[in-house]
Amino acid sequence: MVCEDPGKANGGVAGIGIICAFTIQAGFSILLSLWTCVLAFFWEPSAESLKYINKMLALINNIQLMTGIALLIAGIISQNQSLDLYHQHVIYDTVSFTGVSFSATLLGVFIAIGSTTPPGDSQDKNLSFFASLLAALISTSFLMTIFVILYFVFVIRFGNALRQWDDKIAGRCYHFDYIASPNSSHPLVDELYLAFTALSSFTVLFVGLPFASPPHGKFWKWVTRQVRTALWSSAPYGVRPWGDSSIRAYIPKILFTFVFFAAMFLTFLQYPLHLYMIIQLRRANPHNAANGGSEDKWDFGQVAALVLILPVVKECIAGYITIED
């Protein structure tokens, strides 16, 4: 069977500007995290260098978090209004870049912890209740929690929508010429793709959540300190400045490091995967433009999404100049 009508065009959730913004920011995160690895393992980076790199990673991650939350809210609202499967798939692949960006930030945090000083909250200030509340509301961990909840809701509803696949009903299918074989079973292959990529993204998000600029609260500080200390004690002997060099202590550290970097590598592989899916989905469904406008039109939303990249570029240039000095 061939999909008769994948639905109308919707530049608000699948516009070229939004996709470019997420793609570029996630690419920046991967490059910066790899740069952190190179500095940590082949040179002796200064604390200031690592500080600026992690600052840039945090900035990219926060911008992508806020944009991702906005896109997920728009997608969930549109799902209530019978958003077609094609656009749900594009939204899913687009917001999944946030998981890639966050894994890059987590990798930078791991290297920074292993290359500078042990974690701790000695510099935390005692804040009033109102100040603590405000600090919690603007923290990265709070934004990440909101994103994870919305992401989970969207994934569940997208999975339910896939089960209603019907080639004869408009919006209940899409063309898959470049992402699956002509004889593939739908929605089975789509559900397998969703399960694999979502599980990988959720794993990284949950593991890295305690490192995402925790709110100023005693309980959360305690939880974060325990997790960071556990990570620090498991860090490889060659990365952190001190530690037990016996074989019995060295093997678990090597195993932990292997698992950690394997998880990061698996998440990084999702970057070309999601990018390929978005490109090929748009390529296979070009007639959407004939059903309600063009998704390649550069309207205010598309331009605004790309303008958000400018602070990232500015911070990267400023960080490079600082490190060079």
TrEMBL record:
Keyword Membrane: yes
Keyword line: Membrane, Transmembrane, Transmembrane helix
Keyword Transmembrane (UniProt): yes
Organism domain of life: Eukaryota
Record-annotated membrane-spanning stretches: 12-43, 55-78, 90-113, 133-156, 192-212, 250-273
Alphabetical list of InterPro entries matching this protein: Elsinochrome_Biosynth-Asso (IPR053018)
Name by which UniProt lists this protein: Uncharacterized protein
